[in-house]
Amino acid sequence: MPVKIIELEAENIKRVKAVQIVPALNGLTIIGGDNNQGKTSVLDAIAWALGGDKYRPEAAQREGANTPPRLHVNLSNGLVVERRGKNSALTVSDPSGRKGGQQLLNEFVEQLALDLPRFMNMNDREKADTLLKIIGVGDRLAAFDREIRALYDRRTTIGQIAEQKNICRGAGGIPRCSG
Q1: pLDDT tens readout for residues 8-32
Q2: Residue 139 lies in a domain
Q3: Phi, psi of 12 (to 5 degrees)
Q4: Strands 89-93 and 99-100
Q5: Is residue 160 part of a domain?
Q6: Which of 68, 91, 112 is the last residue of a domain?
């Protein structure tokens, strides 16, 4: 089942002074605005929250901010991801109350992560498979593909048997094939 962000709060990150986003459970959430209003900063905050320090923006703290950056992300699988304080320490807690850091987060993020440079070098089929896996339908489609292939193979075999029977029937119903 795909994991979704059910709430995002970000403060003092890049151009964002403060934002709270609560996406609809179904549908598409659009982040819009004029140039230099913080759209990319919101996306960078999400990448930093879920991807870890390797995605930390170069200048993470908003220029002129009196307080350090703060991120709070609630995910549909119950995980809560927080970054706060001068060093933006990471805290991740799961529904059972277990606390951890990046390793706990990686347990599910790695299966959803998209390595963009690698993705761009994939062929069209690999790209489609990757995207289908991320949105959570890849396994079902693969099962449907296998089922369709099995039905096609069965139908082909039946057609070959029928064709062989027609060849063996000769004129007037006199068998021409033996065996």
Answers
A1: 999 998 888 999 999 887 767 888 8
A2: yes
A3: 55, 40
A4: antiparallel
A5: yes
A6: 112
Looking at the 3D structure of the chain, how many domains does it have? 2
DSSP secondary structure of the chain: ----EEEEEEEEETTEEEEEE---SSS------STTSSHHHHHHHHHHHHH-GGG--TT-BPTT-SS--EEEEEETTS-EEEEETTTTEEEEE-TT--EE-HHHHHHHHTTT---HHHHHTS-HHHHHHHHHHHTT-HHHHHHHHHHHHHHHHHHHHHHHHHHHHHHHT-GGG------
What's the rounded Cα separation, in Å, for the pair 159 and 161? 5
Query: pLDDT per residue over 26-43, tens digit each?
Result: 767 888 888 888 888 888
Residues 43 and 89 in one domain: yes
